[in-house]
Each structure stands twice: as C-alpha cells, then as structure tokens.
C-alpha cells in the first residue's frame, strides 16, 4: 500500500505553520520567510534550481538529509486551497499557482477547493487537478494518480491537520523553527493524543531547528 | 545583579504546560505525570529524595545536566497561586502546599495570590510568603529575600508567561515532551517575537525530549 507523507512542514515554537495576513505579497503572512529559512540553506533547495547560479551550494548535513526526503517515492501531492494561492485566487481564472511554469512537484497535484476548475498542465510533470472532496475521497483519487507510489500532503496547516485527524497520515516530518509567531494558523490544534499512534522522534540540528518525525 | 531563571519547565509539543481539570488529585489535570516523566528518570530527581530507597538511581546524561541547574545559585523562588495548590486552596487555612513538610525549594518562596496569608515556615529552609503584587514588585521583594542570589520563577504557565511578557526573565529552560495534550494552559501565548531578545538553543535528548533555552 502506498504511504501518505508530510515533509518539510515548518512550524514556529508556538506551533504556527503560517502567520496572519496572508496575501499575494505575503504567502506566509507576517511570518515572512522565517519559517523556511532552514530549508533555503540546504543543498536540496539549491538543487531545486530556485537559487541564482553562483550562490552558495547549501549545507549537506542533517537539515538537508531530511529536506531531500521530499521527492523520492512520491507519486502525487494533495494540497489545500490556501496553499495554492492567496485568499481569493478562485476569482482569478488566470491564477496558476505560486511556483511559475515549472512547479517543484513534478507529479499530479490535487488542490482541494470548493470551486473546482479544469486541470492545469504545467512544465516538468506537474498537473494541477482541482477537487471538491473529503480527505478520504481525495486520497483515493490521488492514490490512483500516484500509480502505486506515495502521496504527499503538501499543506497548508488546516489540510495537514485534517488528514492527521482522520488518521490518514503515515509519516509526518515537522520542523520546529525557534521563533514565536504569536498568531496565524496552528498545526497541532485538536490533535490530543496523536502521539499514541506513532513513533515520535525529535532531533535538533546545528542549524537551530528541531526535526520532529511521527511515523507508523 | 542577580538573574531571573526558569528551570525544568515542561511543555507538550502543542505548548501546554498543564492539562485541563486541575484538582487536588490531579495537579496537572488530564496531563497526569506525563510532562514530568523525563525529570523523574534523572539522578537529580532521585537525589531530591522523593524516590523510594532501592529504586533505580536515574540517568546522568543531558536530561540530568539540565535538571540539576534547578538549585545552584538560587536564593528565592516566585510561584503563582495555581502552583501552590489546587483550585480553592485559598479557602483552606490548613493548606501547606503540595510538597509535604520539607518542600524542594529550600529558600524563601513567594506565592503570588490576591488573598495573602501569614508566612509559613517549613522544614529544610523553605518559607512560603504570600504576596499580592505585580511581577515587578514581587521580583523586588524576592531579590531582597535572595540576598544577591538568583530568583527562580517556578510556574505555573500563567506566571512564567507574565514574567516573560514583562521582560523580567534572563534564562528560560523549557522542556518539550513529545505528547499532544490538546487542551490546558499554554506557555507561549501572547509572546510574539520573544526570541529576538534572547539567544535560543534547542537540543534533543536520547530520552526523547527537547531542551529549549532562552538566555540573555
């Protein structure tokens, strides 16, 4: 059976996975880029090609080891509407996601929204499909799209939390960043006792973050 | 200048320092003893004498190294009313704290309450003083009692948070335990940007917890 995985999911010390005030200019709201700084410093990020040539190549230590697990074995991604675009993107028929013409997913990618639209084929193997479905039903569709490979739940926090609450996630990799955001959307709300269903590990990195894994 | 320190302050992954439903039978509410299990496994705890003779002596690794910092250099403790007793202890003139006749503080210990009562001298050097005061004023009194040594803020979470928000804490040692409590009293609420005033470190322990230190 293919597994359901979450990778590189950053949260603040106080548990927020995104800040307040998300917009086209601020995908993470007042959090800015502080939650993803650890990943931008890795070789993984540099090899995604999102970095200008000539910049540093990035670290290859523990942060990178975790970061690189993002892609291998993944055959599809599911993301929530709030990850695909800023508030109101559903009203913009031209919106094609945050990531330009070659998004970093390279698989079928299922966007959960109450207002589906026709599929969007991008460069590099990513096709966005738009689904109005429960987590269970969306997962069944994504598993077909993944052709036996694993399905990644890409976020945002509300979507990850829904899949966790429904018992659908086999592997969660959350990265705790040493900042206090104070406000935004929390990952852990309503998940009392979640650890009882998983083996939980925490490892601190010289980069200052803590990698938390829940696996079963 | 004497410093203000917090030690061995356990929180869940979702940030709760105590559970819901605190009572005389359940000092941490539904959290039970899960938040303090890491400390009970240390040599520090065994040497406090709270363990039956003949039991294991406890670990002497990183968890113990942090735990042992609780006492040295401390000349006084400040605690909130919710740490001193279960809800309603103010109505019980016989209540002498949770800790028996020889509490583990061994210094003047200032209990913040809106209903002060006469001081209580216990065995082993602990005297409980009851103060209706702001954090700043309580700290001034405790510093006198500490005679040049440091002052420990002993909790609960509301009290630690108040002292943090007022900028009064020089060293915070919080211990993140890999459980999700879901409900209770959070440590981090309302502390956006706290990390900017501190050097923050996180270290994971083989025991499964993460030691977070905020120091300045």
UniProtKB/TrEMBL annotation, chains A, B:
InterPro entries in the record: DHFR-like_dom_sf (IPR024072), RibDG_C (IPR002734), Riboflavin_Biosynth_HTPR (IPR050765)
Taxonomic source organism: Kineosporia corallincola
Gene3D superfamilies in UniProt: Dihydrofolate Reductase, subunit A
UniProt name for this protein: Dihydrofolate reductase family protein
Residue span, Bacterial bifunctional deaminase-reductase C-terminal domain: 8-195
Domain of life according to the entry: Bacteria
Transmembrane segments: none
């Amino acid at each position: 059976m293919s597994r359901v995985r979450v990778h590189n999911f950053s949260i603040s010390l106080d548990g927020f996975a995104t800040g307040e005030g998300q917009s086209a200019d601020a995908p993470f709201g007042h959090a800015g880029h502080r939650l993803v700084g650890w990943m931008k410093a890795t070789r993984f990020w540099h090899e995604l090609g999102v970095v200008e040539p000539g910049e540093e190549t990035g670290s290859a230590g523990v942060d990178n080891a975790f970061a690189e697990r993002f892609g291998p074995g993944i055959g599809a991604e599911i993301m929530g509407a709030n990850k695909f675009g800023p508030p109101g993107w559903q009203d913009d028929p031209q919106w094609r996601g945050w990531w330009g013409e070659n998004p970093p997913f390279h698989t079928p990618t299922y966007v959960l929204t109450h207002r589906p639209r026709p599929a969007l084929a991008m460069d590099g193997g990513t096709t966005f499909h738009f689904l109005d479905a429960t987590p269970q039903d969306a997962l069944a569709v994504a598993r077909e799209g993944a052709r036996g490979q694993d399905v990644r739940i890409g976020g945002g926090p509300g979507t990850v939390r829904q899949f966790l609450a429904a018992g659908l996630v086999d592997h969660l990799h959350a990265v705790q960043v040493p900042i206090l955001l104070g406000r935004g959307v929390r990952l852990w709300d309503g998940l009392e006792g979640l650890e009882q269903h998983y083996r939980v590990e925490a490892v601190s990195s010289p980069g200052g973050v803590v990698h938390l894994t829940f696996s079963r």
